[in-house]
Design goal:
Layout (H helix, E strand, L loop, with lengths): L1 E8 L3 H12 L4 E5 L6 H5 L2 H15 L4 H4 L11 H25 L2 E5 L1 E6 L2 E5 L5 E11 L9
Parallel strand pairs: 1-2, 1-6, 2-3
Antiparallel strand pairs: 4-5, 5-6
Helix pairs in contact: 3-5
Length: 151
Amino acid sequence: MQHYDFVVIGSGPAGQKGAIQASKLGHSVALVEKHSAIGGACLHTGTIPSKTLREAALYLSGWHQRGFYGRSYRVKSRITAEDLMQRLEITTRHEIEVVQHQLHRNRVETFNGTASFVDPHHIEVTAADGTVTRLGGDRFLIATGSRPVQT
């Protein structure tokens, strides 16, 4: 069993910042992410995708350049969903690499799987293939995000 000073559950913006800051303060840090890719909802279904799609549409339509080149300016004459999704995939992949690099540079060890508390100082991380890894920690940050209330 591996033991850390600080264990973060969730790799969204709060989890990333908590893990990196704890490492900068000299603590050994582990970060657990439930999904196969790091980054949380902000990176995969929230802010980054929505803003990327918006900016891709504005760029491909030539909207920003029209003031300089005239109203008829377009980067592409026909914009498809595939064009937008391609730009989204490139941006998302790049952002994931940036986050992974930041965590690696700050010596944060990452684990993929669902975390469950065994007791106040131990969790089990169950990977998608069923493998269970037990981690110990002095302190935990639960940064799993939120979801809408179902009524």
